[in-house]
Amino acid sequence: MSDDEQQTRKDFADAVNMTASQLRHWLDTDESKQVGQKPSGGGESTGHESGRHIVRILEQKQSDHTDADYAHMRKVVGYVARHSEQRPDGDVHDTPWRWSLMNWGHDPEKH
User: How far apart are the first and last CA of the chain?
Assistant: First the structure.
């Protein structure tokens, strides 16, 4: 395993603070399905699709991670970092901002 892959896994583990089970449960909620950018014509949002990929990554053995998985891990790390900086004022518990982050495996209310 390369140093880049090790760093990617570490950064991904820091960004994703939900378990596969928590994320799978979240992705089944109406709140999860109503946020995020959807392709023209409707369908699944980018974040919701990402969440399903994150669940697969979390459930895999590390030795089974593909180049596409590592690319997705880097995408997740970047999204969580950028979106976290846009935190709105006040209570964020029931906000699309938090729900979007949760679709990407990060619950900003968990420490």
Answer: 29
Give the pLDDT confidence of 89-109 residue by residue, as tens digits: 999 999 999 999 999 999 999
Residues 6+ apart with CB under 8 A from 45: 33, 35, 36, 37, 38, 103
Nearest CA-CA partner of 56 in 41, 72, 37, 39: 72
Q: Where are the alpha helices (DSSP H) in the chain?
A: 3-15, 20-27, 30-34, 46-59, 67-84, 96-103
Cα pseudo-dihedral 11, 17, 20, 23, rounded to 10: -120
pTM: 0.94
Cα 33 from Cα 75, distance rounded (Å): 20
Whole-angstrom Cα distance, residue 104 to residue 111? 16
